[in-house]
Amino acid sequence: MVRVTRAAYAEAFPAVTGRPLIKLPQTAGRSESEIFFDALALNAADLNAGGEAERLLDPFSAELAAALHARRDDLVRDGQALPGAAEAMAAVGKLDGVVQTVLTGSSKPNAMLKLRAFGMDGYVDFDIGGYGNEAYPKGTLIGVARERASDKHEVTFGEDVTVYVADSPRDVDAARIGGARSLAVASGRATTAELRDAGADAVLPDLTDTEAVVALVARMTDPPRRT
Predict the structure, then answer these.
(1) Which residue from 30, 75, 152, 216 has the fewest beta carbons nearer than 10 Å?
(2) What's the order of all strands across the beta sheet hosting 181-185?
(3) What integer pLDDT is reported at residue 136 of this predicted model?
(4) E strand or H helix that includes residue 42
(5) Do 226 and 217 form a contact (C-beta atoms < 8 A)?
(6) How does DSSP assign 62-95, residue by residue?
(7) Is there a contact between 192 and 172 (Cβ–Cβ < 8 Å)?
(8) In angstroms, rounded to a whole number, what is the distance separating the alpha carbons of residues 206 and 93?
(9) CB atoms within 10 A of CB 119
(10) In this structure, how many other beta carbons lie within 10 angstroms of the beta carbon of residue 50?
(11) Who's near 100: CB < 8 A, 6+ residues apart?
(12) Interaxial angle between packed helices 2-17 and 52-70, expressed in degrees from 0 to 180 and rounded to the nearest 10
């Protein structure tokens, strides 16, 4: 999937800026807005002045979404879902009162495209998510997503019933900043020890044990039963 994403960036960047993308910044764990602003600094520094970067962000996100959509078959061929992810999302979604969404570095169209490619889009309420084309840090986006969920579903989703499932120390920090509990998964970006050291509330080696995932989410969202 990395190769496909890089190709899409290489197509979208010159379409918006008129400059070739000679050097792509680090993308892992970062939002589209962060990547785009850094790419401007590396490849078209003069466009970073006078608010031009902010003006170009939305057009860039649209171009990137179109470029990825054109490569949707490549996403399926070159990418893969984390083992157990679909089963875990299906099971957690059956818990009473649970609403699932995404907090992602991708824009909303790209998040929908990627999850649809692996048959997981039906488990997610995309209307209430937090996305990488929004110029907020992830910790802030957790609060934004919580407010969107409360407004849409007319139920208060407080900090004590919010769980962020993620796979990096940076995401664990975002959960703490956003007032959420963190369920970290050692999927390869970070080790179990690194995630524990970052302060994750719980750590799993992967998502293949569906019962364990469900039990942890249930415990984390039930304040009287927490230990």
Answers:
(1) 152
(2) 163-166, 181-185, 202-204
(3) 81
(4) helix 32-43
(5) no
(6) HHHHHHHHHTHHHHHHH--PPTTHHHHHHHHTTS
(7) no
(8) 18
(9) 11
(10) 9
(11) 89, 92, 93, 123, 124, 125
(12) 130
For 52, what's the count of Cα atoms within 13 Å in the CB-facing half-sphere? 11
Segment 164-185, tens digit of pLDDT: 999 999 999 999 999 999 999 9
How do residues 135-156 score in pLDDT, each as one tens digit? 788 889 999 999 999 999 999 9
DSSP conformation class of 202: E
Residue 161: how many other CB atoms lie within 10 Å:
17
C-beta of residue 189 within 8 angstroms of C-beta of residue 178: no
Q: Which residues pair with 183 in a beta bridge?
A: 165, 202
At a CB cut-off of 8 Å and minimum separation 6, what does 48 contact? 37, 40, 41
Structure tokens that stand for 33 in this block: 């807005």
DSSP character for 96? T
Tally of residues, the chain? 227
CA–CA separation, 104 and 180 (whole Å): 15
pTM, two decimal places:
0.85
Mean pLDDT computed over 65-77: 92
Number of other CB atoms surrounding residue 22 within 10 Å: 11
What residues contact 148, with CB distance under 8 A and at least 6 apart? 127, 128, 129
Rounded-to-integer distance, Cα 109 and Cα 131, Å? 9
State how far the alpha carbon of 142 is from the alpha carbons of 24, 40, 53, 111, 182, in Å.
Answer: 27, 27, 24, 16, 12
Mean pLDDT over 2-12 rounds to 90
Residue position matching structure tokens 């309420």: 125
